Amino acid sequence: MDIDRLREVLEGVKNQAVSVDAALETLKDLPYHDMGFAKLDMHRHLRTGVPEVIFCQGKTVEQVVAIAKRLTQDHHNIMATRATQDMADRVIAEIGDAEYHELARVIVVKPAPLPEKVGKIAVVCAGTADLPVAEEAAIVAETLGNYVEKFYDVGVAGIHRLLHQRQNIAQANAIITVAGMEGALASVVAGLMDKPVIAVPTSVGYGASFHGLSALLTMLNSCAPGISVVNIDNGFGAGYQAHLINHLSGKRQ
Amino acid sequence: MDIDRLREVLEGVKNQAVSVDAALETLKDLPYHDMGFAKLDMHRHLRTGVPEVIFCQGKTVEQVVAIAKRLTQDHHNIMATRATQDMADRVIAEIGDAEYHELARVIVVKPAPLPEKVGKIAVVCAGTADLPVAEEAAIVAETLGNYVEKFYDVGVAGIHRLLHQRQNIAQANAIITVAGMEGALASVVAGLMDKPVIAVPTSVGYGASFHGLSALLTMLNSCAPGISVVNIDNGFGAGYQAHLINHLSGKRQ
Amino acid sequence: MDIDRLREVLEGVKNQAVSVDAALETLKDLPYHDMGFAKLDMHRHLRTGVPEVIFCQGKTVEQVVAIAKRLTQDHHNIMATRATQDMADRVIAEIGDAEYHELARVIVVKPAPLPEKVGKIAVVCAGTADLPVAEEAAIVAETLGNYVEKFYDVGVAGIHRLLHQRQNIAQANAIITVAGMEGALASVVAGLMDKPVIAVPTSVGYGASFHGLSALLTMLNSCAPGISVVNIDNGFGAGYQAHLINHLSGKRQ
Amino acid sequence: MDIDRLREVLEGVKNQAVSVDAALETLKDLPYHDMGFAKLDMHRHLRTGVPEVIFCQGKTVEQVVAIAKRLTQDHHNIMATRATQDMADRVIAEIGDAEYHELARVIVVKPAPLPEKVGKIAVVCAGTADLPVAEEAAIVAETLGNYVEKFYDVGVAGIHRLLHQRQNIAQANAIITVAGMEGALASVVAGLMDKPVIAVPTSVGYGASFHGLSALLTMLNSCAPGISVVNIDNGFGAGYQAHLINHLSGKRQ
Amino acid sequence: MDIDRLREVLEGVKNQAVSVDAALETLKDLPYHDMGFAKLDMHRHLRTGVPEVIFCQGKTVEQVVAIAKRLTQDHHNIMATRATQDMADRVIAEIGDAEYHELARVIVVKPAPLPEKVGKIAVVCAGTADLPVAEEAAIVAETLGNYVEKFYDVGVAGIHRLLHQRQNIAQANAIITVAGMEGALASVVAGLMDKPVIAVPTSVGYGASFHGLSALLTMLNSCAPGISVVNIDNGFGAGYQAHLINHLSGKRQ
Amino acid sequence: MDIDRLREVLEGVKNQAVSVDAALETLKDLPYHDMGFAKLDMHRHLRTGVPEVIFCQGKTVEQVVAIAKRLTQDHHNIMATRATQDMADRVIAEIGDAEYHELARVIVVKPAPLPEKVGKIAVVCAGTADLPVAEEAAIVAETLGNYVEKFYDVGVAGIHRLLHQRQNIAQANAIITVAGMEGALASVVAGLMDKPVIAVPTSVGYGASFHGLSALLTMLNSCAPGISVVNIDNGFGAGYQAHLINHLSGKRQ
Amino acid sequence: MDIDRLREVLEGVKNQAVSVDAALETLKDLPYHDMGFAKLDMHRHLRTGVPEVIFCQGKTVEQVVAIAKRLTQDHHNIMATRATQDMADRVIAEIGDAEYHELARVIVVKPAPLPEKVGKIAVVCAGTADLPVAEEAAIVAETLGNYVEKFYDVGVAGIHRLLHQRQNIAQANAIITVAGMEGALASVVAGLMDKPVIAVPTSVGYGASFHGLSALLTMLNSCAPGISVVNIDNGFGAGYQAHLINHLSGKRQ
Amino acid sequence: MDIDRLREVLEGVKNQAVSVDAALETLKDLPYHDMGFAKLDMHRHLRTGVPEVIFCQGKTVEQVVAIAKRLTQDHHNIMATRATQDMADRVIAEIGDAEYHELARVIVVKPAPLPEKVGKIAVVCAGTADLPVAEEAAIVAETLGNYVEKFYDVGVAGIHRLLHQRQNIAQANAIITVAGMEGALASVVAGLMDKPVIAVPTSVGYGASFHGLSALLTMLNSCAPGISVVNIDNGFGAGYQAHLINHLSGKRQ
C-alpha cells in the first residue's frame, strides 16, 4: 500500500504533474503516517463503533470532561475507566448519550452504535470484594464487542462451585480470572480448562497480601500452563486482551 | 458426552447387560474422568500428536529419562523443557526418535508425528542474551503445532529495526515479546500492533534489574493495552499461551 | 457412604424401581455433593451451632446485612469478623440475637445455641496495641466452642511476667501468640512450652516494622520448634486453626 | 512437683537434716531447673526414645560428629536434619546404630528404641522437585512417633488426583502440604478438609517465585481457614508441629 | 544480694523463726523477683526520679491517661512518647505536674524531681523536617538525666557547617545523628569523631526514600566505624541508648 | 584565589600591617570559607539573580514564610518547590514580587531580576498525570536561566507522536524525560537522540507500579546509553541537573 | 540534510536521470535511515573514530569474537565492555589492533585512530573494591574522546582526602562518583561542586547493602542538587553520559 | 592545639624567622591536618598500639599483603578482617609478627605491643553457626584493648541458659548480641540488662531469613530499650562500637 502510494507520487513527479516541492511535502510525513495513523485508520474502518479509552485516575473532573467532549465532536464512542460518580455526573450532564457502570467505575459514551458482540469471554471471580475489578473487565469486553458470561463467587475455598460451572466456562474463547488474597483461582481454572486464561490479581486482602503482590506472584508462578497475567486491579487490561483473543476466533460463531 | 456414557452404563444395568458391580467399578472413577482425564481424552482425539510436557529443572537425569520412557511406552510425543545436554544425550541414547534444541534447552521426543502447524505466532526478541528464552517459546509453539516467525535483535535502543518489521509482525495471531533489562520492548510492540501480546521478561541484566524484576514490572505496568505477562524466563508459558490463542483462529487459515 | 448410595441407585435401576432418567439426574450431581456439600453436612450434624463466617472487610454495610439475613433465615449462627460499629448496629437492629465484640471487631449472631466449649486454648499477647488481634482470635475460638484463657501484656521486654504464667499457659492444647514490632514472643513461648504454637504477627509498630513484615519474618524464622504462622493481623485464622487443634484433643476433657 | 521438691528441702533444713549451705547450693539452680531442664525431664519420662535434634546446615562434618557422639554417650536418640551424605557416612562409621534418609537429608541415630507411632499425619506434596522437603517432614514425624501417610504428586494443575485422595487425607489428625511455585495446593486442601493444615512453601520455582517467597505469600494469604505456615523449605518444622498436634489426639487411637 | 536474702530465709527456717509454709510462699516468687523486679528495684534506688515510659502510639487518649494515673499514684515520674496534643491536654488536666514538648511529642509528668544531669550527649540533625525525631531523642536523654547539646541543620549538602562544629560535637560521650533522605550524615560524623555514634534514620523524604528505608540502609552500610543504628524515626531509642552510654562515663564529669 | 588571599594576610603580618591576633581571627575560618562559602560567593558573582531554593514538603506554612522572608532581606531570589496554594498565598501576601506556578507547585520570589536564559533544555513527558513533575522540572530550569521547550503527551503507546518531534528534541543540550507507569519513554528517547537524557520516574500508576518503583527500575536498566536517573517525582533534581549541563554549553549560543 | 537528499532524488526523477524504480528502491528505506542510521552517519562524520560498543556479559566468547570481526570489517573501532580475559585473548589473537584493560574489563579494538580527547571528566572513587567500576567508566570516557582525571580512595570515612582534591575535581565538566556500601560519597561531592555529578552505585558491600541497593537508594535520595544516577556497577553508562556532557562544553577548551 | 601551632607560625613570620613561602607551604595543609590527620595523631599518642584496620573482602591476596607491608613499615599494628587462610599465610610469611584467628577470619599483625585491655565487653551468641561473627567481634574488641567475656550458645529456644548467665553478662559495660534466624536474642538480653546492647544480625538461616534480613528487622524493631544495630554479619562494627563505649568507662576500672 505505502509502496503504491510512493510510486504514484514519483510517477507524478516524473510526469511533471507533481512539483518537487509538493512531493517533498507529501513524502516528509510518510514515515509517521505509515507508523501511527494508519493503524488508527484501520481501526475505524474495520470495526465501526469501537470506542476510544480515557483512563480517568489521576485526572481532574474538568480534564475528563474536556477530553470526552473533544472526542465526541468527531462522533467517537468513549469508554472512560476508573471514573468517579462525579465524573460520570458531569459527562452525562454535558454530553449525554452516556451511562455509568458504578461498580465497574466505567462511563460509556456512545453517540454512535457500539460494535456488535461476537464470541464469548468468561469472567471468573473469586470473592465479593473482587467484583469491581471483574466488572471493569466485563464492561470493557462487552463495550468492545464481545459476549461476556460471568461466574462470580467461585473461590478455591469452596471448589465445588467452580467445578459445577466447569463446562460452561470452558466454552469461552478466553477466560478472565479475577482474584485477590492468595489468588489460587487462576491456577485451578487453567488446570481444568484448555483455553487462554488472563489472570487479574486484585489488591483485595490485608497483611502479607501486600496490596495484591501475593496474588500477582501466585499467578505469575502458576504451574498450570495457559495463564498470562496483567497488573494488579487491571480489569481494563484483562478485558482488552481477552477482546483481542476472542475476536481472533469470534468470526467463526 | 459424559452424560451419554453415563446413560449407556445405566441402560446396561437396566437391561441386565451390565452387573451392578461392574457398573459400580466404572462409575467410581466417573467424577475424576469427568474432571481431568476427559480433558486429556479430548486432547488426544482432537489434536493428534500433541506432546506431553516434562519440566526438567530440579529433576535428575535419571528422573527425566524414567518419565520420558514411561510416557513413550504409550507412544506419546514428549517435550522436555529446561533440559541439559546430559539429559538430552541420555534420552536420545535410550529412547531415540528425539532431537535436542540446544539454545532453547528443549528435547522433543516424537515417536508419533507432531501436530500439523496452523496460523502464525511472532516471536520478537530484544537482545542476543535473551535468545534462549525466545527460542524456548518458539520451539514450544512449533512443537504444539503453530507456524512461528522470529524477529530477533529488535530492541528499543535502535527502534528503526522494529519499525522495519512492523507489518510482518502484525500478521501474526499472537505476538510473543521477549526482553530483559528494562523490558520496554513489549510496550512499544503493543503500541504498534492490534494483536494480543504475550510479554516474557528475562533475567538478563545486572544491578537493579534484580534478576528480571525490572523487566517484569515494566511489562505489568505497560500503558499500551493488549499485553499480558508470564513469569521471568518463562518461554514455555508464553509459547503455550500463544499456541492456545493461535489455535482459536488457526482453523481459518 | 458414597459407594453405598451409588450401589443403592444402581440396584434401583436394575430392579426397575428407578428410571434411567431419574438415576441420571441423581448421579449428575454426585461428584459435587461428594466433594463439597457432604463436608458441610458433616459439620452440621457433628457440631451443632457452629457458625458461618462473614469476612466484612471490603464489604459495604448493606452487603454484610444482606448476607447475614440470608444465613439467619436457615437459623445458622453467624460470626462476622472485621466488622465496624456501623455494621454491628445495623445487624443488631435488623436481625437481633446478636452481640458486638468491639475490641475484636466481631459480630456474633446466634439464633441457635452456640456449640459447647471444650479443651483449652491460650491466647498470649505482647502489648496493648496488639489486643484487637488477640481478642479476635479469642472471640473466634470461644464462639467455635473452645475454652480460652488470655495472658495479656507478657512481652519479652519484661520476660518475668511470661515466666510467671508459664505453667498455666502450658496446660492449653494450643497456644496462640500475638505480637507486633519484633515479634520475639513466639520464639520464647515455643522454647518454653511443648504444645503447638500458632503465631500471629501484628501490624503494630513503625518504621522498619514495615506494617508487620518484621514480626512475620521473626515468627517464620523461629529457631524454636513447634511454631506455625498465620497472616499479619489474622486473629481469625489463628483462632480457627487453634480450634481445629483443640477439638482433636477436646473430647478427652 | 517443684513445689514438693522445694518443701522437701525446707523440711530438711527445719529438721537439721540439710545444712543451710547445702540447701543454698540446691536452691540456687531452682529457677533454671524449673524453667528449662524440667521440661526436658518430662520429655524423657513421658515419651521414651524421643530423639534430640541437630540442625546440620552451617556446621562442619566434624562438628556434627562431635555433637552426635556427645549425645549418644547418654544413650539419646538423635535426628540430624539437613545432613549431607558426608556427614551421614562419618556418623554411621563412628557411632553406628544409624541410618541416612538420603532424599530427606536426615540421619537417625537410635541407640535406644524410637517412640511408638500413634495417630496419623498426612503429607501432601505438589511436585517431584518438592519431595526432599516433604520427605524431611515425613521422616521427622515418623521418628517422633507418628504414623505418616504420603500423598505425592497431587498438584492443583491436575486437581482430580487430589480429589481422588480426599477421603484418605481427611482421616489424618494433621495435614502437611508441601508446594513450591505458586503454592496454591494448601488453599485447595484446606478448602476440602476440616483438619489443621500445616503449609510448607518450598524454594522450588524460578523467576518471580523469588526462592519460595511466592509460595510463602500464597499460603499466608489463603482464603481457606485452618492453615498455618512454616518457613520456606522447613520440612522439619512442619513435621514437628504436626507431631505436637497429632499427639494431642493420638492417645485416642 | 539474692543469695543473702535466700540465706536469711533458710536461717529463719533452721531457727524455726520462719515456718516452712511462710518460707515456701517467699521462695515461690524468688526466680521472678530475681529476674525482673530486682532490676526495677535497683533502678529506683540508684537513680532517683528516673521516669517510667509510655509509648502512646496505637493507644487511645483514655488508655494513656489511665496508665499515667496508675503510675503517678506511686509517685513515679513518667515520660510519654509519641503523644498527641489531645493526650497532653488530658494528662495535664487530670494529673498536673506535667509539661508537653510539642515538637518532640513527649509528655513529661514529674511529681518527683527528675534525675540530675551528667556528662554530654550531642544531637546532630540534618534538616528541618527531621527535627521532631531529633527533639524526641534530646528530650528523652535530658529527662533521663543527661546534658544534651544540639547541632541542627548541619546536613552534608553544606558540609562546612558540620565541620565548623566538629570540635564541640567531639566533646560529647555519645553522638546521636538524625537524618532522612539519603542519611549520609552519620557516615560523615563517624568519620570525623572518635565517639560512639547512634544513627537515627527518619522517614523524611519521598519517592525512593521508601519511608526511611534508604536512610536506614545507608546508616547500616556505613564504611566509617563506630556507628550503630536504631529503627526509623526512633528518637526515643537513640536517646535511651545514648543515655546508657553517657552514664557509663558520666560520673567522671 | 585562596592561596593569594592567604599570602596577602601573611605579607601583612610580615610587614606588621596585620597583628598576629587579627591574622589568627582571619585564618581560623579559612578552611570553612575555602570549603563552603566560597562556592556560594562564586555563584553570586558569576550568575546574578540565581535563586536560593526552599524544599517546602514537610515544612509548615509558617516555616516557609519565615525562611522566605529571611532570604529576601538580602535581596535573594527564591524558588520554593513542593509548595501548597496556602504557602503561595501567604508568601505573596507578605513578601510580594512573587508568583505561584500551580501545576508545578513552585513559588518564585524575585526581588531581583532572574538570570538570563541560555541554551535549550527539552522536557519530554509521557502522560497527563505526569505533568506536575514535568512542570516542576521546566519551571526550575527556566528560573535558573535556561530556555525550555516542552514536548508533552508523547508516550510510547503512540510512538509516532514522539518520532514526529524527534528533530526538535534533538536540538536541546539536555533532555528531561518524565514518565510513570512502565517508564519506557526514557529508553526510546535515548535510543533516538545523542544528547544526555535525565530520566524522571513518576509515582503515576497503580498496582505493580509500586508508587514509581517500576518506572525507576526501567530507567535504571535502560539498554540505551546516555541516560541517568533522579528520584521518583524529582522534577526539581532533573531541572537542576539539566541546568548544570545546559550551562556548560550555553555560552556557545 | 535528509531533506536535501530527498530533494536530490526527486530532482533526478523529474529530470529523468533517475528511474522511478531506482528512486523507489532508494526511498523505501528512507524512514529508517531518517530515524536510525542517519544518527549513526552523523556520528561517523562528526566524530571520526568513535567506537561501536559490545556488551559482552551473557555472550559466549564465540559470539563476542564474531561480532567484533564483523564490525572491524568496516574498519569500525570497537569497545567491548564486561569482557573476560578469555574474550580478550581471542579478540587480540584473531583481530589484532586491540588492547585489554584488565581491571576495567574492557577490550578496545582500534583499526582506525580513536577520537581526539577534549575537555575533562573527573572519576572520583570511594574504595579499592570499587575500582573495576571506576576504571570501566574512565576507559569508556577516554576511548570516546575525553580527558579523564582519576581521584581514587577518597571515601567519606576520611573526608580530608576528598577536600584536599576539591579544586582539581571542580575543574571537570562532569564528575563521575563511584561508591558502594552506603554510597554517601555522591552527596558530599555534589554538595561541594557546582558541576553535574553522575553517581554510580556499586555492588561492593555485604549484608544490608543488598548487592548495591543501599548505595543506589542513597544516591537517588541525595539532598544535594546536581546528581543523577545510573544502574549499579554501570561504569559504562556513567562514562557515556559524562562523555555526552563533556562534549557539550568540550569545544571551548 | 591547632590554634597554638597557627600562632607559632604567624609569630615566626612576624619575626622574620619564617619566610612567607615556607609559612604558606605549612598553612596550605592546615585544614586537612585539622580535620583528618590530627585525629589520627591523637590516636597514636593517646592509645599506643591501636592497630590500623584492613577490610580484606573484595581485595586480592596481593593487595592485602601490599597494604599490610606499607603499614608495618611505620611500625603500625594491623587488624585485617574478613581475611582468608591464603591471605593469612602470605602475611605471616612475608611480614611475621602476626597471627590468624581462623574462626574470626582476622589477622593481627603486631610489630608493637597491642594496647592494654580495660573494662569488660560481653559477647552473647545464639547458635554455633553464628560463631564466626561473634568471634570477629570478640577478637576486634580484644585487639583494640578491651577485656571480653564470651557467652555462647544461649539462644532463646532454651532461655534458661541465658538466665543462668544473666548477672555475669550484666557486669559488662557493653553487650554485643549475635544472632541469626529470627534474632530474638537481642530483645531478651536488652529486656534483662541495663547496659547498652549492640545487636549483630547474622546471615545464618534459610528461606524467609532472606540472608539476615529477618534478624536485622527483629533487632531494629525491638520493643526493649537500649539496643542499637549494626549491619548483617558486621562483627567488626559491633566490636568497634563496643570498644568506644567500653573505653568511656574503662578508665574507671
From TrEMBL, chains A, B, C, D, E, F, G, H:
One of its GO terms (biological process) is 'de novo' IMP biosynthetic process. It comes from the Bacteria. Transmembrane segments: none annotated. One of its GO terms (molecular function) is hydrolase activity. Residues 119-251 form the PurE domain. InterPro entries: P2CMN_synthase_LarB, PurE_dom. Gene3D superfamilies: 3.40.50.1970. This is 1-(5-phosphoribosyl)-5-amino-4-imidazole-carboxylate AIR carboxylase. It comes from Candidatus Moduliflexus flocculans.
